[in-house]
Structure formats: structure tokens, C-alpha cells
Amino acid sequence: MDKDEYTVLSEGQLMLRQFLKHRVAVISLIVLLLLYIIVIFADFFSPYGMLTNHKDYLYAPPQITKINFFDDQGNFHLRPFIYRQEAVRDPKTLRFVYKGDKSKKDFIHFFIRGESYEMLGFIKSNLHFFGVKEGKLFLLGTDIIGRDLLSRIIFGGRVSLSIGLIGVIILIFIGTIVGTISGYYGGLADNFIQRFIEIIRTIPQVALWMALAAIIPKEWPSTYVYLGIVIIFGLISWAGLAREVRGKVLAIRRSDYIYAAEVSGASSIRIIIKHIIPNVLSHIIVIATLSIPIMIIGEAALSFLGLGIKPPMTSWGLLLTQLREVQTLKHYPWLICPAGFIVISVLCYNFIGDALRDVNDPHSR
């Protein structure tokens, strides 16, 4: 048989091919990439600013279900539109009731000029992905002071999604170093590290997060609070990774190629960097991927309880604080929309983590 008919694939190519067989994981990866692109360029994708309030549209209902292509006369419009909302106060409940004015159509345009912004700190523009030239567009409704909920969700995703990534970087750094030292050197160091890990893991994680988050001074600005929560998540969550890395290192430590490297005079640092870390890297990636959703949920829980992100910054958890009262959810159910984004991002990370775990398992191929 001709040699050209054979294709030799590297380990990375084999893992990629195995990962692509998980269609749900591939779709989840695409969804996450889209979410991160949108939140990074939030100023462009959001129709309004994060703090822009519309005093005439307090608790305005979502308009996403009111997008039309046909008007009342049955005429088809190539460009989607909404009927302009007008607020009328209910004499009994004193709440605003919004009704569509059939005589005014607000057409939805893409790449439309609107509020000015400074994206990423240096790009000045007023171009938005979508919007209306006249009237207002609130696809997911507004909050108590008339701020567009969709815009706040997009800006809030910056905090909620980045906390997981930055926290996992700290987790990987500490967990990998501690786990490798514990498994490679053993002895007294291993015994001390394992006892310390057991102490940390006996404390309920959420309770420990809350206790440490409560220590953060209330007078700190939002940026400091954000950094403090990221560091807390990273410093607490490393114990599980360290223990699993230790188990992997203990198995690799007895391998023949490790003995050969030691006999040849290689230093411990060189053996760890060149031989041990590359062999546990795939496992570290799997654990890190599965840890991100835990941190996203943790931030949401802390912010919901008032111990997390502080205004004027916002996050998906902080947006849910408006629902502490059941009556608010009853009258304004669209305020629960941020929870949907939390669920979507957590599920996507879990699907990707499960796929990576299958790829990392030699018995799955």
C-alpha cells in the first residue's frame, strides 16, 4: 500500500479530533466565544450605556416579543420594527402600564449611531450594533430607574465571566505548584500539605467565601472589591486541584523515564518542568474548566447577598439583587433574565469540561 495513504497525527491532533466528536461541547465553545466577544466589546454591542437611565420608561416590559414584520394593515416590512411604547399610570396600582402606539413605528437598524463611548479605554465611537433612530428599544425591558436590562447584562458579563477566568489562573498556579511539590518530594512536606488541604476542604466553600468577602472594607472602590473577590476565589479553590495533581505526580514519579532523568543528573526543577508538568497538563486543563462555573456561581451568590460586586460596577449576580422580594418577581418577571445567562455559561463550561475529560481518558478513544 502506498505510504501516502497513511496519515500520522500528533497527540494534540488526536485530542482535537476526539473533542470535535462532542457536538454539544463544540456548540458550547462557540456560544462561550460569542459571549466573551460581546462582553469585551460591550460598548458596541449594547444599545445603551450601563448607567444610562430613561426616566419615562421605569420597569418597561421586554419588547423582544413585540418585534414585527407586518403592520396592522397586513403590509410586510423588510426591516423589523416595534410600535412605540407609551406609559400610562394605572389609577388603581399606580404602576406604569405600557401600550403600543400603532401610529408610530420604530424600525430596528444595525450599525446605528447612538451614545458616545470609549471602548477598551482608547477607541472613541458612537457606533452601536443595533438600535432605533427614534423612540426607545428595550429588548429585555428596564429596571426600577429605567436602565436597559440587556445593556446591563452585557456589561455585567464582563465581571461574571472574567472572574472565572482570572480566578482559575490563580487556582492553576497555586494548585499545580503545591500539588507537584507534594507528590514529587513526599515525606514531611507531603504530610504537612495534605493536612492543610484537609483543613481547607472541611470548611464549607460558600461559607468561607462569604466570611472572607465580608472582610473586604466597604469603603473600597468597585475595582478593588472586584480584585479582592478574584483573589479570594483563587486562594480558596486550589485545594482540589492540588490533591488531584499530587495523585498524578505520584504515579508519574515511579515511571522509568523519571528514574532515567534522575540517573542522568537532571535537577528536580528540570524533571518537573520537562517531564512531569507536560504529563499532567491535560488533567489540569480539565479541572480548571470545571472550576470556572463554580466561580461564576460563587460570584453571583456573593453579589446577590450584597457581599460581592458593588455599584457602579455590575454583574449578573448583582442584577439579581432586585429580586430579593417575591412581589418584584411577580410584577416584573423579566428581571430574572440575568439568571438565564448564568445558567447558559455554566452549562457551556460543564459540557466543555466533560468533553475534555473524555478526551483525556485513554479508554474513551
Structure report:
- The protein has 365 residues and is α+β, with helices and mostly antiparallel strands.
- It has two domains: 63-137, no CATH class; 152-364, MetI-like (MetI-like fold), CATH 1.10.3720.10.
- It contains 13 helices and four strands.
- It has a four-stranded antiparallel β-sheet.
- A hairpin with a 6-residue loop joins strand 2 (76-89) and strand 3.
- The longest helix is centred in the middle third of the chain and has 37 residues, at 149-185.
Secondary-structure blueprint:
Layout: H1 11-20, H2 23-40, H3 42-45, E1 68-70, E2 76-89, E3 96-119, E4 123-132, H4 149-185, H5 187-202, H6 205-215, H7 222-236, H8 238-253, H9 256-263, H10 268-304, H11 316-319, H12 326-331, H13 337-360
Helix pairs in contact: 1-13, 2-4, 2-13, 4-5, 4-7, 4-8, 4-10, 4-13, 5-8, 6-7, 8-10, 9-10, 10-13
- Tell me the count of domains: 2
CATH class of the largest domain: Mainly Alpha
User: How many beta strands in the DSSP annotation?
Assistant: 4
Low-confidence stretches: none
Q: Which geometry do the CA atoms define?
A: elongated
Please trace the helix and strand order, writing H or E for each element. Answer: HHHEEEEHHHHHHHHHH
Give, in spatial order, the strands making up the sheet with the most strands. Answer: 1-2-3-4
Number of helical elements: 13
CATH superfamily of the largest domain: MetI-like
Tag the structure with descriptive keywords.
56% helix, MetI-like fold, 4-stranded antiparallel β-sheet, 365 residues, elongated, 2 domains, alpha+beta, 13 helices
